[in-house]
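Appendix B, Record 12. Input sequence as logged:
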Amino acid sequence: MPHKIKGMTRSLETPLRRFTLMLAGEDALADTAIEPPVGLPHERFLLAYAHPKQALPLAPILMLGLGLPQEQVKNRVFACLQAIHLHATRDHLILTNPALLALSPADGSALFTAAKPLLAEDFGTTPINPHHAYWFVELGLAVTEFATLNTHSTDQAHGRNIDWWSPRDTSLDGVAKRWRKLQNEIQMLWHIDSTNDAREEQGLPRVNSIWLSGIGALADIYAPPEIEGATTLIGDHLLLAGLAQYLNKPYMHEIDGLARDFAKPNNPLVGAFAWLNKPAEIWPQLCAALLAGHLDEITIIDFPTAAPRERLYTRSNLLSNKGLLSILQPLLFWRSPALPSWEDFMEKNP
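Logged structural output:
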């Protein structure tokens, strides 16, 4: 057949109906590591595909995820600031998960207002607070040196000794020291703030420090093909919400009943990319859709090591998978089969 006709034939083929599910990854720290890895594996996958050693531009994509217009963010370099609690041990400080702070909008606003003059003075620009737990500052021409810092997100650094995870100098010496000086000034300011006294009376941890991370610009983002080609992005994560706005893609905060009938035309789950807190909840519907022929493929992306692992499942190889054969066997003989559980799948496919 002539090449032209071959190409025309391919263009008329129905595209594969795929659902992609990503699982978050953890650091696999080598004993020989001399510095922390650049971001969590899934952060690198989403924002720095094919550029794993590049600093991750978390701040601008978080800003989009929080609803700031792209016009306000593009062509500018930003850093993310978060109020945190440092837990003191005998010989070092540990960053507590910010979610455990239970920071209220009122507390966040009061602390931001107190720290705002210090931040504006050192950064040379007025910080913004689109959300009580996430503040941002532009690193403009007056403070380009801050943009050289090597930083890590609180998602990556929490529960760990901050000596290793705090901002570090890269190309310029003394910048990290300058940040620590500002950090100490804010710590002292918040130490005497009545907001912290009130929190202590309520049994809440004191907000005793501030964290800098996510330095970068939108132009630094390199999204993976799985995101670029997705019809819809789904998940309760600001990174996905920001990527959806940046790439002009539909975004769903959560899956709401749409998984019940993949056979319906224009179901947004067909061709979607999801990062879900509870993947087990949609797994039965995905299996049923695959086995009924309403989906052609399920792709699962996880990170058993620093590199992403992609596993593709079709109806045929799902049924023939040795690890799943015993639990899927009832599907072949019972009128109302019990679908394989997410726990069984993960146990048989580590």
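The CA atoms of residues 52 and 181 lie 30 Å apart.
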